[in-house]
Amino acid sequence: MKKKKILFISQEIAPYLEQTELANFGRHLPQGIQEGGKEIRTFMPKFGCINERRNQLHEVIRLSGMNLIINDNDHPLIIKVGSIQAARMQVYFIDSEDFFQRKAAFHDTETGKFFKDNDERAIFFTRGVLETVKKLGWVPDIIHCHGWMTSLVPLYIKTSYKKEPIFANAKVIFSLYNNDFKTSLDKNFAQKAMMDNISEEAIKDYADTSFIGLNKAAINASDAVIKASEKINPELEAFFQSVDKPKLDFQGTENYIEAYSNFYDEILQATAVLQD
Predict the structure, then answer these.
(1) pLDDT band of 274, cuts 50, 70, 90
(2) Has domain 5-275 been given CATH number 3.40.50.2000?
(3) What is the pTM of this model?
(4) Residues 176, 45, 138: CA angle, nearest 5 degrees
(5) How would you classify the pairing of strands 73-76 and 78-84?
């Protein structure tokens, strides 16, 4: 029986970034799923605060070199890779001289302010992952997204990348975390994120660029949703409870990996039944 393939897209993974709840999920969930018999690929941004020498990252020349156009500007895509030896897990990093060289993840270290171009950084990261997976020729059964920075993935998979053989049958799961940011992304985020085969109707959810708005938009475009944090924003909690699609409530640390793996299987089995 062919191994099921799970693509993890996470804005944070420990030990490359500080150990937030999201970063710990990014570190331990893929390992657990891999050890359970599924095949994985894992992606995150190569923030400038990640020490390349200490973490032994190196560029993958055959995957780098593509230019992504965002807001009429060309941005060269650089792909790097590292390994978490204890987990026998490889991590692909999306890098850019324009977006990921500064020595912080999301906020200016001096002013504490949210980076003004976090919207374009999210677009670049999302498209960079999907284009790299295409180059790898690796066909995921499940795409599991972690963090607001991945909120465009469900939209892109259902529109611009829908006819790509790599993604044609992939199911997208979006996880919700208690990691609110208090401001909003640039108001032109939706306009900048537009690609071929995306209608104005499809992208209208992304006009609300607040933390709540991005998470709601991602839920609406996903096939399933997981409440990863025990406590999340109350408005997001209410929205999660109201959603009529496959969903998994909060799971404790002792059993979440098994629960998530079973959830993946349920979604894939339901899809297989519908296709028969």
Answers:
(1) low
(2) yes
(3) 0.96
(4) 85
(5) unpaired
